[in-house]
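Homework help board

Subject: predicted structure for assignment chain

Our instructor gave us this sequence and asked us to write out the predicted structure in token form, then describe one feature. I got the tokens but I'm not sure how to describe them. Can anyone check?
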Amino acid sequence: MRGLKGKWVLITGGARGIGAATAARFLEEGARVVVLDRDEAALEHIERDLPALSGTIDADVSDAEAVARAFEELDDLWQGLDVLINNAGISVRKPFMEITPQQWREVMDVNLNGMFFAAQQAARRMLAGEGGVILNMGSTNGLMGYHYYADYNASKAGVIELTRSMALELAPTVRVNCVCPGYILTPMQEAEYTPKMLRACESKIPLGRLGRPEEVAALFAFLASDDAAFITGHYFVMDGGEIAGGLASQP
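My token output:
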């Protein structure tokens, strides 16, 4: 991709799954990458796996003060920020009537509030500098109804609308887009689904398989690059064709 070499990139929720794959991809593109995550063990693991990282930061995006401190730590490492991959997220798989108030708050705190906290901190630096790109992690769950994910669905719908609002207000200095994966084989997906459930998901996808984290990372790289310089305010679906036929709403 054009224009990524030497860029400063921060990836939240970057120690595992799609975040880790995205860190690896941006390093391949010649970018300088810092990973932020609240999982200390996962951070230690990715430091070993990706020794070319410029650093890691232990922080919880749901805590606004912790996010502010993390960006101050980032300021000590870099002079500015070019790309934020706003990736941190969690989910709770439960029927709507069984979701507790605490579980609802936890999902919203990470998936929507955390997205806002990190994006605002990044945008301040980009607006004060030479601009940049913010890419928010959405989901097909924010576009279609999925059983047993009312909290997650609502949070991702909010991320899509947050993306649109940010794109309007931060243009032309900062570009903002949203990536909406479907079923991607990540540790979070494997923790919630049995092998039988994963096979059932595959049967709903026209391309016949689950997506790979590396494929989502490639889309992030494109949207952050100069090749996407005229793209802002949109969401991009990567789902193997699943929602094209309305298959997501099947239990």
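Reply (TA_rk): Your tokens look well-formed. For the description, you could write something like this. The two ends are 38 Å apart (CA to CA). That's the kind of observation they're looking for.
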